[in-house]
Inverse folding.
């Protein structure tokens, strides 16, 4: 079944081609003739090529006087540099300059052909020099090809023209103008004179800053401020330690004094040293002897005087007092020996010693507080001096850094100007503009071969189209497919014609 279907399809194709063979042949011949005519009449196009190598160079560094002492390194990748060069190479200004120098009329004759057509343009006001330049620019832009070779930093530049000399001259001039434009674009915008002036000013500022710093050091006798501050801090730490020690000693002495004062108050000044009991009371014996004598005198006076006699009365009073004293005295008594209390004396001595220690530590603490206050005042003075010294050092450092940067930029600007004068660039011409010897278009042999192939295919396609739009029934299969009726018999045109002629006869 499959083989029969293929055979039927091939038979249908061959039948359709054979049925419209004359039309197919005419189509193929006309198409091939048109292709051949175009290739014969089409002008030859020549192409001039050139290659440029873009590498890193001094263009990666920009010296900008607008930035204070700045030499800016443009760390951009090579791809961006290549695209920057492409933009310069295809800039409108560069294209116009090439067209103007080569001559717009040389490009116009290849864009607007025919003297009568150019005259018509001039009549309507779009001809002349303006139109010539316009069409020349369009022609140059349309036929200029600039591209970057894959995985490289090579720029390929090509220009096509019908005149090989024009292609070579135009592309060569484009490369020359591009080289000049590249140097102009990347030329240093900083004038060395500007940097020389700035270097002189910054030198004066640096000298003034250094003088201010030296005067400040000499005024306050500063040799090594950090060492002085560290020494003073060490003295302050020692003073704090001594103050803490003195405060502790004062507190301890105060407590000792309080304890000793209480202890002294609890001690008597004199204490009993010895006690003897049962000792004869010689005072009582003396009282008895004196009392006996007074009684004798009383009896004598009483015998001679009245009871109201004054000496008698006084004598009796003495006797009465003596009797009372005798009554208070016993026959024996206890003999007690007292003396200075040694414990109290020792406590008083210790108290005096502690009071002296307290006074000494209090005086020491006061002196240390005064010393610490002096140290703190000195530290505050050194701190303010340190701030001022750091500011002066910072001014010197900033002035020195600005001076150094401008000095470097001065050297860089001089080098850049020298390189600009010598036209040193990071773009090298790997291949100059070639002078074409053979046209690149049209490729006549290939075009004619393709024309013949396309003509044949088109003729076959035309046969299929004609067969598709043809509604006539030519085979039994067409009758069965279109009418849905079986074919009982078929008569050819010759048979039909012979039958008709016999009937007529």
């Amino acid at each position: 079944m499959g083989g029969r279907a293929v055979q039927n399809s091939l038979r249908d194709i061959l039948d359709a081609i054979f049925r419209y063979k004359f039309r197919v042949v005419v189509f193929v011949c006309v198409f091939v003739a048109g292709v051949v005519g175009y290739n014969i009449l089409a002008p030859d196009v020549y192409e001039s090529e050139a290659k440029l190598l873009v590498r890193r160079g001094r263009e990666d560094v920009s010296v900008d006087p607008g930035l204070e002492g700045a030499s800016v390194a443009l760390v951009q990748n090579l791809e961006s540099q290549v695209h920057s060069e492409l933009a310069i190479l295809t800039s409108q200004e560069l294209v116009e300059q090439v067209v103007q120098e080569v001559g717009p009329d040389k490009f116009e004759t290849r864009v607007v052909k025919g003297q009568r057509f150019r005259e018509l343009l001039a009549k309507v006001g779009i001809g002349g020099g303006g139109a010539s330049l316009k069409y020349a620019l369009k022609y140059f832009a349309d036929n200029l090809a600039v591209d970057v070779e894959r995985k490289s930093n090579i720029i390929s530049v090509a220009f096509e023209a019908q005149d090989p000399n024009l292609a070579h001259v135009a592309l060569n001039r484009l490369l020359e103008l591009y080289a000049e434009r590249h140097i102009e674009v990347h030329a240093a915008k900083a004038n060395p004179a500007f940097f020389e002036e700035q270097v002189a000013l910054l030198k004066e500022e640096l000298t003034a800053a250094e003088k201010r710093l030296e005067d400040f050091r000499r005024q306050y006798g500063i040799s090594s401020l950090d060492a002085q501050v560290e020494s003073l801090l060490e003295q302050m730490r020692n003073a704090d330690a001594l103050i803490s020690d003195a405060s502790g000693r004062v507190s301890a002495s105060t407590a000792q004094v309080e304890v000793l004062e209480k202890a002294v108050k609890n001690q008597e000044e004199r204490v009993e040293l010895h006690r003897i009991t049962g000792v004869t009371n010689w005072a009582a014996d003396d009282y008895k002897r004196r009392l006996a004598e007074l009684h004798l005198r009383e009896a004598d006076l009483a015998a001679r005087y009245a009871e109201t006699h004054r000496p008698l009365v006084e004598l009796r009073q003495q006797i009465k007092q003596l009797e009372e004293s005798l009554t208070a005295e016993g026959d024996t008594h206890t003999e007690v020996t007292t003396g200075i209390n040694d414990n109290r004396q020792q406590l008083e001595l210790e108290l005096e010693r502690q009071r002296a220690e307290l006074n000494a530590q209090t005086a020491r603490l006061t002196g240390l507080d005064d010393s610490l206050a002096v140290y703190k005042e000195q530290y505050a003075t050194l701190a303010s001096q340190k701030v001022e010294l750091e500011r002066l050092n910072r001014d010197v450092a900033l002035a020195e850094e600005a001076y150094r940067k401008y000095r470097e930029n001065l050297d860089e600007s001089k080098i850049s100007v020298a390189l600009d004068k010598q036209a040193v660039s990071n773009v090298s011409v790997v291949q100059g503009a070639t002078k074409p010897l053979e046209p690149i278009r049209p490729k006549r042999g290939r075009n004619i071969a393709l024309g013949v192939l396309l003509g044949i295919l088109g003729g076959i396609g035309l046969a299929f189209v004609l067969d598709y739009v043809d509604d006539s029934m030519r085979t039994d299969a067409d009758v069965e497919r279109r009418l849905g009726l079986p074919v009982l018999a078929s008569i050819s045109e010759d048979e039909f014609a012979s039958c008709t002629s016999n009937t007529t006869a």
